[in-house]
Design goal:
Blueprint: H1 2-23, E1 53-65, E2 69-80, E3 85-94, E4 100-108, E5 114-127, E6 137-152, E7 157-172, E8 181-195, E9 198-200, E10 203-217, E11 227-241, E12 251-264, E13 270-272, E14 286-288, E15 290-309, E16 315-332, E17 344-357, E18 361-372, E19 381-386
Antiparallel strand pairs: 1-2, 2-3, 3-4, 4-5, 5-6, 6-7, 7-8, 8-10, 9-10, 10-11, 11-12, 12-15, 13-14, 15-16, 16-17, 17-18, 18-19
């Protein structure tokens, strides 16, 4: 009896589970479904590069010399996204001379050698060599351009080939009605450049660089006359950090420069004197077709300031430096003998104030005095300048 009841119940349970399985999907008893991982399809085509450029630097700048007075202007440096194209432009106006110094250049750097073109208008002041004018002011204006091909020979050395075509105008400031003398000069030139100098903040601290350059002007190259111009310059920098032996010690930098030049039948001459060459003498007081110049400087930071001055963090006073220096040089012309005892020499010292505009744009002020050691009749000269001479 009990067995028959159990059999009937078993049949009923079997029918019940059969119906349940037919209603509920089998997938409900499967393992939990794993989340799907989305994949990014690899593009089948490469997009063409679209040209993008930016103004990497747009800075105001200021300079000073006794002939131009204060020169204020703008400096622009720009490049494309890949750095294949570079543009550089400088424009400044001398408030005392009323003359505009302009320069703009483009360089294509995708391949070696690199190619560049440069346009310029610049002025050079010298005292009148004939002393026929009351104020003895004579200016040379160069207006033209050049085409440059530069090829690296090693990590630090390169060779440049240059073609220059320019108009040189000789003018006297005092007599406005005086006709100007104009010359056209066309020349090919070559330069051998070596440079492994290491810079810190605004100035070089170690390394050496030299530049040997020659220009060869001919009528076939667009020049009104035949001329030659040769120049060579060597600069060297070394430093010693006194902080290794003295708690408050700083880094002393020794900077040297040697320069020599020779011109034959060139309209432009070598100027000498003033804050850019021979301190203790008048600005471009001497001039000639041959030049020899030597400079030595010891540069030492007195103390760090790191103080923001003026509203809105306009100026960051960074550091006050001290420098002592000695200069010696001479210019002469064809037919004159170059004697060592005829060279002019001076010694001097000064302070240099380093600051940054908005913490980024460097500005280096120099207040220095210098005295001739070869001409006792000359007094001590004080001068103001921006940046370093070399």
């Amino acid at each position: 009896m009990e067995y028959s009841i159990f059999t009937r119940c078993s049949k009923k349970l079997t029918i019940f589970f059969a119906i349940l399985l037919s209603i509920i999907p089998l997938s409900s008893f499967a393992e939990e479904e794993k989340p799907k991982i989305s994949t990014v399809e690899t593009p089948t085509t490469i997009r063409d590069y679209s040209f993008r450029a930016s103004a990497d630097l747009l800075l105001p700048y200021i300079d000073y010399n006794p002939a131009d007075g204060f020169i204020t202007g703008l400096y622009l440096y720009g490049s494309d996204y890949l750095g294949n194209h570079q543009v550089e432009a400088i424009g400044g106006y001398g408030f005392k001379s009323g003359r505009a110094h302009l320069q703009a250049g483009y360089t294509y750097m995708r391949f070696w050698p690199t190619f560049g073109i440069n346009l310029f208008q610049r002025y050079t002041y010298i005292e009148n060599s004939n002393n026929t004018l009351g104020e003895d002011e004579e200016w040379f204006r160069e207006r033209g351009g050049n085409f440059l091909v530069s090829f690296p020979l090693s990590k630090y050395m390169r060779i440049d080939a240059i073609y220059t075509l320019k108009e040189v105008t000789e003018e006297f400031k005092e007599y406005i009605g005086t006709p100007f003398k104009k010359y056209q000069q066309g020349a090919i030139g070559t330069s051998l450049v070596w440079d492994n100098v290491v810079y810190q903040e605004i100035g070089p601290i170690s390394g050496a660089q030299f530049n040997i350059h020659g220009d060869f002007g001919e009528k076939k190259l667009g020049s009104d006359f035949y001329y030659r111009n040769y120049e060579g310059e060597i600069r060297g920098y070394a430093n010693y950090n006194f902080n290794e032996h003295w708690k408050y010690g700083k880094r002393l930098v020794v900077a040297t420069r040697l320069m020599a030049g020779y011109k034959e039948n060139d309209v432009l001459v070598f100027p000498l004197g003033g804050q850019d060459s021979l301190r203790g003498y008048g600005y471009h007081e001497f001039h000639g077709t041959r030049i020899a110049l030597a400079n030595l400087e010891l540069r030492y930071p007195l103390f760090e300031i790191n103080q923001v001055i003026m509203p809105m963090d306009l100026f960051l006073a960074k550091r006050l430096d001290f420098a002592i220096f000695g200069d010696a040089g001479r210019v002469w012309n064809k037919g004159q003998k170059a004697k060592f005892e005829d060279a002019e020499a001076s010694v001097g010292a000064g302070i240099r104030f380093l600051m940054f505009i908005y913490g980024k744009i460097p500005l280096y002020h120099n207040i220095e005095v210098s005295k001739s050691v070869t001409d006792a009749s000359r007094g001590t000269r004080g001068f103001f300048s921006f940046g370093t001479m070399f």
